[in-house]
Amino acid sequence: MITHIFSDLDGTLLNETGDVTETNAAMIINSGIPFSLVSARTPNDMAPIVEKLQLNSPQVAFNGGLIYRNESGKRVIISEEFIEWEMAQKIITLIQTYYPSLSFSFYDDDNWYTCKIDEGIKREESIGSQIPQVVEREVFFSQDPRKLFKIMLWIFDAEVMEEVKEFFAKLEIEELAFTQSSPYTLEITNIKAQKSKGIDYILSHYDLDKEHVAAFGDGHNDISMLEKVGHPVVMENASDEVKAYGRYITKTNLEDGVGYGIETYFLKK
């Protein structure tokens, strides 16, 4: 019996317009199985999905940087792993100094910040529900420290992506994780903010047996999550490399693959 399900969002639960279809939502809700979103997105971006799926179980934002649940319309923090204020300032200064043309933004638990509106920011805005606040780095970091959970870069040139990854790797910053989450995005988080660590926390905190837990994913950054559960389900739209980690292969994200997978593999036995 499956006692809990984890699911990625983009390319997994969400369709081409970034929504959960009514059919998919109904199948998830009617299963009655506790369901946790596991995403690099912000809690505010996840909120409409949490509401639509009527979720009250723990949710994982910022790739595990923030674990929370909703109680009576309020966000209750369970665990948080953020980038230290001085370190965030250092990273953003390095980006602006050595790669001034790159698109980047950064996030606290409620707000999305950028220093300029460009192609990357416009793409991010098109797939999310938040509006970025444009700030000046020096002014922003002269304020009282706050918890920043993620710095994200949009890099549209594959060679530049590899160059930037190598640049940060040479710095050997042990407290940060640099994760290429798509061909065009590089995400920087606390080293402890990883999908697998978020799942570990929930499994331990709620005393869940991994052999009775399932996860749905489609990307390389979902592999560590898929390896943490007894019933990994990979979307048909995933690459063959990612499919190799699946115990089951479900339909694509455009065919309500998550709901189909739940009904086919976990409810019809």
Automatic annotation (TrEMBL):
NCBIfam families: Cof-subfamily (TIGR00099), HAD-SF-IIB (TIGR01484). InterPro entries: Cof, HAD-like_sf, HAD-SF_hydro_IIB, HAD_sf. GO terms for molecular function: magnesium ion binding; phosphatase activity. Pfam families: Hydrolase_3. This is HAD family hydrolase. It comes from Vagococcus hydrophili. Keywords: Hydrolase. The keyword Hydrolase applies. One of its GO terms (cellular component) is cytosol. PROSITE patterns: COF_2 (PS01229). The keyword Phosphoprotein does not apply. It comes from the Bacteria. Gene3D superfamilies: 3.30.1240.10, HAD superfamily/HAD-like.
